[in-house]
């Protein structure tokens, strides 16, 4: 049962980037800044105080710590994804500035070529070249370090949740084994009592008729209490198992998404550094002996590719936020079932 419940790797592979996720990304990208903040407001899915008290009251200490770690990590991941979205906006603005700078270089090169074709001694001043300003790289080493840190934290949380899930599963096996053993013992005891009655014979029949009704009145009451306690215990363990299942799936999916985001951030950061170096080289060569237009064209192609990469990164950041929100809501719903 445990392997069946925790087959989250296969489930992730079969459900990643479904139509519902695509619809979410499409609708999310149509929102303005304030609407996006409202949609992903972490306060919307914070665990209510009464549910938190109930979780403390009805769970084991290790499971409680695992769930607290899950909620704390999800809040931190939400904040990092929001910061990432702001950095993406800065990057998109920087690429617009880069396009304007490259256009001014092309205009300057075209103007110089036209003037040289007319006369070699032209005194026409070249067009003013837009000054080159090195773009800031929002995806610095510190940003990538934050992603590695939150990814490591989610990996630790997932291990803790799986460990707690295993312990709950073992407790369930023990409870079910005790229940089965109790039934077996009851059958054996009844059989033994019947055998003794047959062996002793009729002399005790009169005594059995007198004492039997009283014993039958007391035994069901004690038996019902014991059965009720066991059912309550089993139900509580099953609910804990469902909570841990839901948290484990959300943690695993988000960990995979963070892997993808981290790779995209690294590629985009390297592209920004390379393009800054190329732009600086272009600015230094304008008006010199070396042709610069081919380098400008190459830089344009690189910037176009990086802009597409930034758009893809934005989609994945929105997907991460959606995953965090959806998983937290599902876990809170499972906790609420204990009310």
UniProtKB/TrEMBL annotation:
The keyword Transmembrane helix applies. Keywords: Membrane, Transmembrane, Transmembrane helix. GO terms for cellular component: membrane. It is found in: Membrane. InterPro entries: DUF677 (IPR007749). It comes from the Eukaryota. The chain crosses the membrane at residues 181-198, 204-223. Its main location: membrane. This is Uncharacterized protein. It comes from Zizania palustris.
